[in-house]
Amino acid sequence: MMIGGLTLDATIEDLLNFIQQSRGFDFRGYKRTSLRRRIAIRMDAVGADSFAAYQARLEADPGEYDALLDTVLINVTSFFRDPDAWASLRTDVLPDMLRGTGSSGPIRIWSVGCATGQEPYSIAMELADLMPTHEFLDRVKIYATDLDEEALRVARLATYTPGEVEGVPAERLETYFERTAHHYVFNRDLRRCVIFGRHNVVRDAPISRIDLLICRNLLIYLEAETQDLVLPRLYYSLVPDGYLFLGKAETQMARSQLFKPVDSRHRIFQKASRDWRRTAGGGLAAARSFPPLDGAASGALLFEQALNEVGAAVLVINDAGCVALANLAARRLLGVAEPDIGRPFQDLSISYRPLELRGPIEQVMLDHQPVRLEHQEFAVSPLEMLRLTVEIRLLSRPDGLPYAVMLTFTDTTRLFNMQRELDAAQENLEQSIEELQSANEELETTNEGLQSTNEELETTNEELQSTNEELETIAEESRSTAEEMEAANEELRIRTGQALHSAMHLRAILRSLNVGIIVLDRMQIIESWNRWNENTWGLRAEEAVGRPFASLDIGFPVQSQVGNLQRVRNGEQVAEQLVEGVDRRGRNILCRIRLVPLLDDNASPVGGVMVMEDVTAERRRDDYERHLGRVLGQALNEIYFLDPETLRFTIANRGAELKLGCHRDQLTQVSLADLLPAGGVEDLKLRLEPLFGGEQSEIVIETTITSLDGRSYPAQICFQYFADEDPPILLALVHDTTARVRLSAD
After folding, report:
1. What are 237-247's pLDDT values in tens digits?
2. Is CB count within 10 Å lower at the N or C end of the chain?
């Protein structure tokens, strides 16, 4: 596979695993086509010709990770991106969300893939317009997460260039931004309510109790399987009736039952209410009622009912390896039915799903020690994943000999999720403490350095004052220039990727066209030679490109087109031509030649394009159809073409004119029904109804035809209907049966 001139081998999965293990950047759920294209850009930049070579570069140069991350994570964002969608959010969603949270309840918003922060600051401005500032500061928390630490650093600064705030209305720019010499800084009070952090939505635990979740144009970079994993995470993050705001290019909700549309056009959805309870199946006491019993029977019934009321699913496996007992919870959760009682445990799906249990059971029977398997994944359905904790205990007789094994399946999904959230919160807290401690140490060091510097500068302050002002101006200009260069470089990288993509498509189109394409420069040197030319003339592209067109030695008369190419380059029009040639197999072919000028950006001719099309078969087909039409038109058998609506003659051949005794122009004035016995047009159309309805491919009738000059003769008429023609055609083939009738009479 070639991308941007690089040969990419099949080791991209090894490279992604290496990146994940060494730096924690997990790109394995991203679309492979996008990853290949983005990684190829960095490979081209560092001169790596394979994924293995690029992996070696990463091992040797850790700084390359930052460049790779900047390339793969496309931080394309802006304030109020897609204004119509934000207007719909402002009018249809936010007022209802505020009513749902009450006058004092917390408002939690999560911006997934926030890039450099424009998106969370946009929603902050929207909410600040709808509520007093003190209430906003008390109630609103906006969580903004991304994989790119550099983008998060820029987002925390909340400092933007004039070009980056073009999407902010003037009144909001005045209200929520502070203008500096060359930048706009977002309001400090509102900024404190926005919490930025690094987060991988595919792998990390989601943030919970979210009222509005913004995830715009992130899912389009993920594989379909990864999207199916992320959508339930987003679902569980939201409170009941919470809202999900996606990008306009994302259509995953069309196949998801987790969300219902609020505004499909602008990709705004609401969490759908779902019944997570499964229909109860048969249990130990589910399908029968027990009469009052005494003694052992009453005790057994009481034991059975008590076991059914246990919240955990319980299975008992006897010493023969067969299912001896399953309570109601086990039958509902694990799908164990009444016929499964007494079956070998190894024949049930629960013996290997959610994990292989036969080995742990044998271990318990050998060691006489219980085994506990924590938080095993168990898929109830494609959209519902539970975590089960399995406990395996040995049941012994009074004499201490093993009697059976009891398996207890406890749903610990909620505990597992809470533990993951707790671990993530603890990790974030520890990271925040470390960052705060590091910042404090840096601040103390900086303060000490500043104090010493201030003491030194006091003696020379007056002399350096003017110099400092000039340096400050130069520094501001340098920062502005650097930001502009960074923006230009980013745009150049994006355009380069698009150009590589377009070039790949162009090469594929040229190779797939069923015509020959030859692109020539001003000196008639061949610049492009596609696959049709290779297959037809037997000359490979690498042999043709770079050679003068007039020097080609192929079965095509190239010298006949040299003058035409010169006229095209001079801006003259050259009509299409039919030129005979001999292909590489020695067959004579007829080519239709079209010459068009090759123009530059100023519409000036800089060369020419020759388009060759093999019309040999087309010419033969036209000759065949022309000869066939002449033969049918002069045939002595009668052939009628009729209007399906009126049954009037539209075309009749020479044989029909002779039999009916008139010219074809006269026949167009009458219908076929006028030449048949009484019954009329409607009666004949009724007989032909199965033909018009497609129930029969042809209908044959025996009748008598009376010609316009009064002669009558018996005939057999075969009707065929061609509905696909425009207009549809009713064809009648007539066979004179006079001889057959006379022979039957004799």
Report:
1. 899 889 999 88
2. C
